[in-house]
Amino acid sequence: MTQTTQQTQTGTAPATLVIGGTGKTGRRVADKLTALGRPVRIGSRTGEPPFDWNEPATWGPALEGVDRAYVTYYPDLAFPGAAEQVGAFAEAAVAAGVRRLVLLSGRGEEAAELSEQNLKDSGADWTIVRCAWFNQNFDESFFVGPVLAGEIALPTAGAVEPFIDTDDIADVVVAALTDDRHIGRTHDLTGPRLLSFADVAAELSKATGRGISYVPVSTEEYRAVLRENGLPEEIADLFELILDGRNAHLTNGVEEALGRAPRDFADFAREAAATGVWNA
Asked: What is the reported pTM?
């Protein structure tokens, strides 16, 4: 039995459920909450108790003794069925006594906005955290291999994106979970500058000291790559959607939420390279 479970069951302190608590943002949110002395329950299929989006029977046990939750959805809120599941979970959470829900959402995704509305309709105190592409997609996710291979092939053409660091996201989420001033707000988070994927490749080349290039491919070519690697082909359509120019602008969301500037991609790349993650 974990310390968090013991505390929750004895009633000494309600827990925060962090769905996707082993993922890029969830892991950081869990660590930051723990550092603040707040009990955390990890919502994952390997958690105790387990949580599975596709198994609603797991939701109730995961919500016992919880008074707030960070909600992330895999693979993405834009995927079919996400809005219905998020809405059903939010209703179950409120019925279980959860007072506050913070939802991780994506910028420029109309389908994701359906999930946002369903969560708002639950009656919980809510905060929406809409985010640009994560910096950490390049060192903790599906772009690690391409960076190691020296070639990032994506159907993005000349699109630019205001890449955001997951530590900045986690800081905003923790603020939203712990500070009433964020209730009822939608935080639109971006990094400090717009970068094309060729710019990203250049920054990664500088950080690693070796040549990394960006190669544009068609959506169909990228869909085939996803299929070969056992990943959802819908990711290719999502890339095409959100990189059509709709998100090619900066916001001051991090500054508004935290009172400081967001982290730059170059700083992320330099620090990630120092860990050896991209050593070929």
From this structure: 0.92
